[in-house]
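Please check this protein record:
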Amino acid sequence: MHDKKPRTERRKLRPGRESLVGLLKSPVTQLILVVTAVGQVVNTQMNGVDNGSHFASSVAAQELATVALAPTKATPDRQAGARKAEQLGAEYRRQGFNVSSQLARQIGEAAAEYSIDTEVAFGLVRAESSFRNVATSRVGAVGLTQLMPRTAAWIEPGVTRSQLRDPKTNLRVGFKYLRYLVNKYQGDERLALLAYNRGPGTVDRALSRGSNPDNGYADFVYGKSNHGHALFTR
């Protein structure tokens, strides 16, 4: 028997593998690998933050659109609302306004659809047009609720100026716009009416300065005296 000598030599690597191991052990290569790994981690985190922010913005925009343009429709007592509209129509006829039973009914139905108080709805139509569907303001506002065509098309895309001459369309879009403003001002009806008259931008600027945007228009709609406004006469 021959004595076996201990194996002290390592198995030699093939030339290609030996050069690869040497390259990986190189300080320069290790530095490059570390920098690459760190970059990937940072990029992943940044993408996550950006995607999260974009998602949150998208959700916020969707919620705003839902509140602004598709207000929740109420389910009031339709018969009671119809009786109230008939009573108000008769009252305004006694005051000399040309409010037919059909128009009174249309005002009541459109107001109920967007949860607008019936008296406020009648008051707004009286203030804006004196119940005259042919009314047109000097700046181009049209019909019973005196809608600007651009505003109407924003609230209800596709509606045209000629369609705003249809009483039902005009009332529906006008009260839908008022509901949007009531939602915008978190249920503050007076501010919503002021914005309907002065424009939400004007009201918002006044509020941001800490000043009172009230110009008496809400009192005009509510039928109070000394409001500083005149009924539509053209």
Notes: The two ends are 129 Å apart (CA to CA). Residues 108 and 118 are 6 Å apart (CA to CA). Confidence is low (pLDDT under 50) at residues 1-13, 16-21, 34-68.
